[in-house]
Amino acid sequence: MDIIKKCNVKISGSGSQAIVFAHGYGCDQEMWRKVSPAFEKDFNVVLFDYVGAGMSDLDAYDPELYSSLAGYAKDVVDLCEALDLHDAILVGHSVSSMICLLAARDIPDRISKLVMICPSARYLNDAPDYVGGFERADIEGLLDMISRNQPGWASYLAGVVAKNPDQPALAQELEASFCAMDPPIAKRFAEATFLADNRLDLVDFDKPCLLLQCQEDSVAPLVVGEYLHQHLQNSVLQQMKATGHCPHMSHPEETIALMKNYLSS
After folding, report:
1. What is the rounded end-to-end Cα distance, in angstroms, of the chain?
2. Phi/psi class of residue 169: alpha, beta or left (left: φ > 0; alpha: ψ in -120 to 50)?
């Protein structure tokens, strides 16, 4: 199937170098609306929806393919190949940070660098040496809630993710986006996200990476960013003033400034 139609790909901008924005769990390309236009003057901006999100082609959803992050990474690879991108920059929010890393490992000649916004290589704690922020019981409880009570889990997760009480519209938008997902797709993507372990995928990955980390991020706490910085050999870790897990939505100006500073240096 045509990846452009399948993933509702939208292209704008006047630059020669492509910058591809990959949205996080339960979101879609609309979540980049406060950030992506700032790059249109200097880049060819590529936005898309993962299958099962936004305006993607739901008929293209394959439960087996999308049972792991590798399936989502394949779509990023297919997109880059269909557009014949070279020297492209991948910008991934949350789980898409690892999805983009997996894609870049598959097509290193097409990717120049990565920007990872609130990334995590593993969300589960793995005692005694690794802290991801969640116990298995936390994740199993969330997965159970997705199966039984869609409004309940959407409201709960939106509150955990947003962490900006002075911006109530942010949590409301996230909750509506989570609720819009088909429950079986939402649960399968949650399993692929929160049960993944991408720590070994960091080994020998040498593309330049900017790691943007927020204050008070319950999903990807400070120790997670430090772990990634230590294990990605060519990374820059930038602590943001922004709070929560979605700085591109809550603090777009800071997000844009840090990205532009990194990409121009």
Report:
1. 38
2. alpha
pTM of the model: 0.97
Q: Which one of 23, 93, 245, 251 is the catalytic residue?
A: 245
Catalytic residue among 28, 75, 93, 94: 94
pLDDT digits (tens, 9 = 90+) for 41-76: 999 999 999 999 999 999 999 999 999 999 999 999
As given in the structure block, the two tokens for residue 194 are 């929160």
Which listed residue (78, 120, 217, 250) is catalytic? Answer: 217
CA-CA distance, 97 to 209, in Å (whole number)? 10
62 is catalytic: no
On whether the CB atoms of residues 106 and 73 are closer than 8 A, the answer is yes
User: Tell me, what CATH number does 89's domain have?
Assistant: 3.40.50.1820
* pLDDT of 1 over the 80 cut: no
Containing structural domain, residue 254 = 3-121+198-264
Is 68 catalytic? The answer is no
Residue 157 inside a domain? The answer is no
User: Does the annotation mark 245 as catalytic?
Assistant: yes
Q: Is residue 52 part of a domain?
A: yes
